[in-house]
Every structure is written in C-alpha cells, then in structure tokens.
Specification:
The chain is built from 12 helices and 8 strands. The protein is an alpha/beta fold.
Length: 328
C-alpha cells in the first residue's frame, strides 16, 4: 500500500509533521539507523526523546552530533543492556513512570554475528532483537494506549524470509541452538513480525490488558530499512572472516546512508499521519513506506502464538513475575 499522491516516497526532511509536544523512546538510538531516527525526531521538534543503548561513548558522540539537528537538551540517554533482562526490566519500569509516551521505536539489534550466550543464558540475537524489546513493549503498552494515535515500531528485516522452515519457537533448547550467523539473525527478524501480528490480534480481540479503542492506536507495525551502512557489517566480518570481509567490501558501496535513507520506513511508521488515516496496523513496511506481505512463516498465527508463549515463559522464569498483564 503506497499513498496515491506520494507513491512510495517518504522524505524525513519534509514529510515528518511537527512533533512539538510528543515524547519518543528509541532503542539503539545513539548510532546507525537509530541515530538517524533520533536526529529527524529532534529536527521536527519532538519535545523529549529518550535513547536506550548500552555504550556510553556512543551516547556522548550522539549528543554532540545531534546539536546539528536541534536542541539536544531534549534528548535523554538511559543506559540499557538488552543482554541483561533484569536491567532491561528496571529500565522499563522506570520509563513506565513517564507521564506521556507517543512512540516506542524498537530499533536496537544484533546483526549477522557469531552465536553468543547472554547473562540470562540465552542466544544473544534472540534476547536483544526480540525478547528484551518485547519486555519493554508490553511494560510500556499502557502508556502507549493512553495516547491517541501513539506508535510502536519494530525494526525487522527482509532477511526474515531466510529463517529456517524448521523454526517452531517451542523450547529454550531450540533458541540456544547455534544455527550460524545468518540463520540466527533471520530467526529474530521473523520473531519481530510474528510479535507485531500477535500483539495486534490481542488488541483486536479486546483481550484483558490489551484493550484499546479501535482506530485510536497504538498503531503497531514492523519495518524493513533496506541495506544500510552501519557497524552491523563488522559483525558479519567477525563471524565469517575473510569471506565476510570480501562480501561486505563488495556490497558496502551500494548500502544506504543511515541518516538520509536507512531510517525512512521506521520514521514513516512512527510519525506519519497517513498511518492512522490509512489504518496501517500490524503490517510490514519496506522502503520508503510501502506496505508489503511478509513471508508465509511470518503470517503463521500458530507460530506467533508459540513465540508468545515461549517468550512469556522465559520472562517469568528469569524475572519471577511479569511487569504487565497477561492476555492469554
């Protein structure tokens, strides 16, 4: 679905409306695509932007660079290691006290990298790209529900189409199986779309804890940024060695700039008034603003429910109790 007038074009310099009075939370907002998202939110007068990231040096660099885009005193950094569920939970509860959240943009993610296990004993791709951001999302869902036409954006990838057909999301042992860098990454990008669709189902079914006035938001969508030049390519080099280095060298000239282009689908989903006007809900958006059909796997309701159940099971085991109401 593309707008009849603008087609598939969304220029963040011109097409983002005035965001005065709005508050956004951006994971991974200090570098790469996340920095591009933050820069344009600031450029268009967002009143407060809360950045979640792990590395303080990235936050300091971002703070200085953001002066080019507006008053960087409106940007607030919170240290959050998504590889640590307890810390992520504390940050989520801290953010829950915010009087207003107009948009949560879950952009942080591990790239095509080596298999690693987190402090919580889980595959780091799965925990960072999906589980920790599911925790943030569901903790902050009441905040989003209280603001008309609020937005939730999950940064997925077209590599979700490369997820193994054997994926079932039924056990921790499955999650902690080293599938190789590409398949580990693809599985989490599949998970993000499945999570978006499962969350929207719960809202549409008016389930306890998920009730939200119809056509009032939050508007929840997954996005694909396209091929973007970020430090994620270095993870591929580390994972694949010489082969990875040659591959990255070959494709890098064709990759998009994260500030000029790589952030467009996420910013469209997070800010454009057309999302509400056109009722874009539970969809998959590719550059710049085209709604397209994800893979058959990503449309699988049973697979999505498996993922939801397993994710909640893990969160309960690791945290003791869930900081949000269960819908099923």
């Amino acid at each position: 679905m593309a707008h009849l007038i603008t087609g598939n074009k969304f220029d963040p310099n011109k097409d983002i409306p005035d965001l005065s009075g709005k508050v956004y939370v951006v994971t991974g907002g200090t570098a790469g695509i996340g920095f591009g998202i933050t820069a344009h939110l600031l450029q268009h007068n967002a009143s407060k932007i809360i950045l979640l990231s792990q590395k303080e040096e990235h936050a300091e660099e971002a703070e200085e660079e953001l002066k080019k885009y507006g008053d960087n005193s409106r940007v607030h950094w919170v240290q959050c290691d998504l590889k640590d569920l307890k810390q992520t939970n504390e940050v989520a509860k801290q953010l829950k006290s915010e009087q207003q959240i107009d948009g949560l943009i879950c952009n942080a993610g591990e790239g095509v990298g080596k298999y690693n296990v987190t402090l919580d004993g889980l595959d780091s791709h799965f925990q960072v790209n999906h589980l920790s951001q599911m925790l943030l999302t569901l903790t902050l869902l009441p905040n989003l529900q209280s603001k008309p036409h609020s937005r939730l954006v999950l940064q997925s990838s077209d590599l979700h189409r490369a997820a193994l057909s054997s994926t079932t999301f039924t056990s921790v042992d499955e999650i902690n199986t080293d599938l190789g860098p590409n398949s580990l990454y693809a599985r989490t990008k599949l998970a993000q779309i499945l999570f978006v669709r499962a969350l929207v189902r719960r809202m549409e079914n008016n389930e306890p804890g998920f009730q939200s006035p119809k056509y009032n938001g939050p508007w929840i969508n997954a996005t694909h940024p396209g091929g973007v030049n970020t430090d994620q390519q270095e993870q591929a080099v580390e994972a694949y060695g010489t082969k990875g280095k040659l591959g990255v060298k070959a494709v890098r000239p064709f990759l998009k700039d994260p500030v000029d282009e790589g952030c467009r689908p996420a910013l469209f989903a997070a800010t454009s008034e057309d999302v509400a006007k056109e009722g874009i809900q539970g969809q998959y958006i590719v550059p710049d603003r085209k709604v397209t059909e994800p893979s058959k796997q990503a449309r699988g309701e049973e697979l999505g429910e498996n993922l939801w159940r397993l994710s909640e099971q893990i969160l309960q085991e690791k945290l003791g109790s869930l900081p949000y109401k269960q819908g099923r």
